[in-house]
Specification:
By secondary structure, the chain is mostly beta strands. It has a single domain, classed as Pnp Oxidase, Chain A. The chain is 12% helix and 45% strand. The strands form 3 sheets. A 7-stranded antiparallel beta sheet has the order 3-2-6-9-10-5-4.
Length: 168
């Protein structure tokens, strides 16, 4: 076996797409309106004490500079069936939250209904990482959804679903 020496952005994107990941929507209320981004680079369990999660965001993001100053950011781990929600929040349209079923906490964190997991977070630290920034978020609260159909998975540049195990 030989390794591919092509490290161009397109080649790396193709290679990295071989690693499946969940999809997170990070949303908050900013100046009275919802703002948010989606990330497939989201990682839980970075630290249990203190409770930390992380994700990577492109330095050229126009939304993250607006969102980062929020008191609290709602993280919704998207569930199967949230493909259109993911695409809508990631779009560049004027109202990326039109028609979405949202829950807003007292601190302004926005959570998407029927997500596989909710986290209420604040920015702990940001570190430069090439053309991205790595963002550590401190977790202030969690909620799992008992009847969630399971997480939405992004793999090979497409959305997939985990099959629920059959009860014996």
């Amino acid at each position: 076996m030989s390794l591919n020496a092509d490290l161009s952005p397109d080649a790396l994107r193709r290679a990295f797409s071989g690693f499946p990941s969940g999809v997170a929507a990070l949303c908050s209320t900013v100046d009275g309106k919802p703002e948010g981004i989606v990330a497939s680079s989201f990682t839980v369990g970075v630290s249990l004490d203190p409770p930390l999660v992380m994700f990577a965001v492109q330095k050229k993001s126009r939304t993250w500079p607006v969102l980062r100053g929020s008191q609290r950011i709602g993280v919704s781990i998207l569930a199967s069936g949230h493909e259109d929600v993911c695409l809508q929040i990631a779009s560049k349209s004027a109202d990326r939250f039109a028609g979405l079923d949202l829950h807003t906490t007292e601190s302004g964190a926005i959570l998407l209904q029927n997500a596989a997991l909710w986290l209420e977070c604040s920015v702990e630290q940001e570190m430069p990482a090439g053309d991205h920034d790595v963002v550590l978020l401190r977790v202030h609260g969690t909620s799992t959804q008992e009847n969630s159909p399971g997480p939405l998975v992004f793999h090979a540049s497409a959305f997939h679903h985990l099959k629920q195990p059959a009860l014996v």
